[in-house]
Amino acid sequence: MDALKRTLIEKAGHDFGFEYTVSETATSLTLGSARHSLHAEIKISDGFFLTELINAKPLLLEELNRDFHIAKQQLACETINQLAAFLKRTAALAHSLPNQAEQNFELSVGSELKTLPTSIKGTEIERLVRQRVGQDTYRKAMLEYWNGSCAVTNVAIPEILRASHAIPWSECKTDAERLDVFNGFLLTANLDALFDKHLISFDRSGIIMVSDTISQSNREYLGLTPNMKLRWLAPEHEQYLKKHRKRFLDL
C-alpha cells in the first residue's frame, strides 16, 4: 500500500468515525475508535478498498445491508468516497444500536452525577438528571440510526425532528428499553405529536395508520396521505410497535 492511499484511508477514518490506527502492515491498515468497539481492516486488492469489519455484531451487519452488500463482514469499495460513506454509516450504527446507547448513557450520567452532592442520590433531582441525559442520548442515537432524516418523510432538518417513543419513557421497565433505537422513530414534529397521542401508528409493513377521529380536511392540512410509510422497518421494531398499535386501535 503506497503512502498516498494510506493517508487517504486514515483521513477517511478520522473524519467518519474511526479516528485512530489500531495496527498496520505493508498491505493493510486497521482503524478503530474510542466511541465503539468495531475495528475496520482495510486492504488494497485489485484496485478496490477491501474492508473487513472486526467485532461486528449480526444486527449491525443486517442494518448495513440496507445500503451496502456485505459478504462475510467484507465490502469492496471502488473509491475513497465510497469507503468514507461506508465507514460513516458503520460508525453511526455502532454508536446507536443496542447496547452502545445504553453504555454511553451510563458514562454520561455517571460523569454528571459526580459533579453533584452525594445527598441527591435517590432523590427527584437524580431522577431528572437521568431523564434529561437519557433523552439526549436517545435523540443522538436516533439521529445516527436514521441518518439524520425523518423515518417517514426523509426531511433532514434536525431542529424539527423528534425522537419518538412507541412505549413511553415513563412506562419503560429498564434503561435499555428507554434507549433502544427500535423503541420508536425519528419523526418530524407534527408526526411525532400524532404518534405520541396514538393518532397515527404503523402496520407490520411500515404503512401509516391514521385514526378515524382525524377528518379528511385535517389529514390534508397535516400532509397525511395513505401512501406514507416508514423508510424501513426492522424486525426489532415490532415488539414495541405492536403495543403502540394496540393503543391506537383501542382509541
Automatic annotation (TrEMBL):
Pfam families (alphabetical) = HNH_2
Q: Which UniProt keywords apply?
A: Endonuclease, Hydrolase, Nuclease
InterPro entries the UniProt entry points to: HNH_nuc
Residues annotated as domain HNH nuclease? 150-203
Q: What molecular function does GO assign, one term?
A: endonuclease activity
Top-level taxon of origin: Bacteria
Name of this chain's protein: HNH endonuclease
Tell me which species this is from.
Zooshikella ganghwensis
